[in-house]
Amino acid sequence: MGTVLLAALVSGATSGILAVLLVVAERYLADYGTCVVDINGGSKRLEVQGGKTLLATLMQEGIFIPSACGGRGTCAYCKVKVREGGPPVAPTETALLAAADLAASVRLSCQVKVRNGLAIEIPESLFLVKQFTGVVERIRDLTHDIKGLRIRLVDPPAIEFTPGQYVQLETPVYGDNPEPVYRAYSIASPPSDREHVELIVRLAPGGICTTWVFTLLKEGDTIRFNGPHGEFRLSDTDAEMVWIAGGSGMAPFWSIARHMREKGIQRKATYFFGAVKPRDLFLVDELRQLEKELPSFRFVPALSGAEGDGWDGEKGLITDVVGRHVEGGAAKEGYLCGSGGMIDASVKVLVAKGVPQERIYYDKFT
Amino acid sequence: MKRDPHLQNVVSRMASGLLSRDGFLGDDPRRLEEILDADNSAVVGLGVTHEALAATLEGIFEKARAGLGTPVPIGGRHVAVHHEAMGRIPCPWGRCGVFPKGEVELADTATGEAIRFTALSIHMIAEHGFYQGRGSRYRLEPAALALFPPAGSTPAGG
After folding, report:
1. Quick check: B1 contacting A, CB < 8 Å?
2. I need a labelling partner for B109 at 20 to 30 A (CA). Which of A90, A186, A247, B93 fits?
3. B1 belongs to a structural domain
4. How many structural domains are present in chain B?
5. What ipTM was estimated for this complex?
6. CATH number at A129-229
């Protein structure tokens, strides 16, 4: 009996000592203290509490690195150059980073823990990215599978951006979705409407974000996003432009076209909008009106599967229609927005028409 | 086909709401190992390989993709349409990279039945022998896929 009691006492004491040791270890050994993150060779210097990922740490400091997966190491969007102080490359990074990226010290910021001082490089444009909260002012059905969102900004109350840029829309937790996820959407409104942001969202079967937009989101709901992001924009030349996009790929061009109208930019632009059936077209009246108000702008919708639908406009794949209309590409520029397949096919036809590859700009969905 | 010793991690990444709204296991009551074993046995019994079936799907996928949303005839009896979608999705095995979203719907014009698959579907068949759980939108039956002519061959009927 005495032996049993003694054993129980020793066991309990040992457990207690181990527990204390664990607490002490967590308090002192896992505490990385204050770490200095040097950004862009001294351009900005952050003193932060170590222990979190670089992505989360920067977000806390108001620097928003693009991320679609909320830091789960699955989207590969959150790339940052870590020049000094980074930990060894994780297996999750080697799966998603090309050899050239790794050679250039590019890392996934969601996989880099801040444990000591770091020297990193990020695009200067990221310093302009902010977190926004807004209210859904209007949800409009544009087609059977595309919705237009109009968001009134609350905090901050206004946004500055270049037409062609995008935001990262936050999908809140719902259903089986355990954490917020972020998805990129081009801004469809013109920069002059600083208090609002418009987005064009197409339903993707099984999509976490688009399911939320199409089934749960309501007018009056609070909505969050960060931005603006991206380099897709008009060049600083006067070259005639060929725009190609269908579906939700219209968004950046709807922003750019209205901006051109407001600023009286007379640069010649032809917008080829590809769809399959008449029901896939939207904003046609608005774009026809824009043609009247901006004589340098031409809108060419084309349907590839409209036999027997009474469509008397351009027929065929959008790339075939472009091939029929575009000549003398050497002096033109191409602007494309859409899926990888559409982009690849469009680049091919534009190059065949003489448009220099380095003057074809695109915002690839993938 | 090597089995990943960390299948439990894979299973957790296949859950609905994590990488996609519905995940990859559908309402299949079987464990992932059982799904993989059953489909592997089916493929072996058919005298084909996962890689060959994936290559067949890849050929159909590329033809549909070139159609830019327009129905493309496949053989004398099927029609494929590529539906584009924004973004990329990673493989739940976690070390294979990311794949473009968007699906191909392949319909039998005689029966109206259709299957759907994605670039990720093709990868998971080729690299992991995974055809997704029953009830999943992208579940593919090896026996049905084996009926399609191999990639690169000329199908009967054009």
Report:
1. no
2. A247
3. no
4. 1
5. 0.86
6. 2.40.30.10
- Which of B60, B61, B86, B138 to substitute to test the interface with A, most A CBs within 10 Å? B86
Question: A183 and B17 in contact by Cβ < 8 A?
Answer: no
Q: Domain ranges in chain A?
A: 34-126, 129-229, 240-364
Interface check for A69 against chain B (CB to CB < 8 A): the answer is yes
**What type of residue is A309?**
D
**Cα–Cα distance, A352 to B118 (Å, whole number):** 30
Percent of chain B with pLDDT over 90: 70
Q: Which of A200, A95, A185, A105 shows the shortest CA–CA distance to A147?
A: A200
Give the mean pLDDT of A357-365.
Answer: 88
Burial A81-103 (b: 16+ CB within 10 A, else e): bbeebbeebeebbebbbeeebee
With b for 16 or more beta-carbon neighbours within 10 A and e for fewer, the A313-343 pattern comes to ebebbbbbbbbeebeebeebbbbbbbbbbbb
Residue range of the domain that includes B50: 7-145
Range with lowest mean pLDDT among A4-8, A122-126, A130-134: A4-8
Residue B116 lies in a domain: yes
pLDDT tens track for B97-118: 789 999 999 999 999 999 999 9
Residue A166 · residue A184 · CB < 8 Å: yes
DSSP class of B121:
H
For the domain spanning A240-364, the CATH number is: 3.40.50.80
Homologous superfamily of the A34-126 domain (CATH): Beta-grasp domain (3.10.20.30)
List the structure tokens of A24: 């002490």
Task: Among B20, B68, B83, select the one facing A208 at the smallest CB separation.
Answer: B20
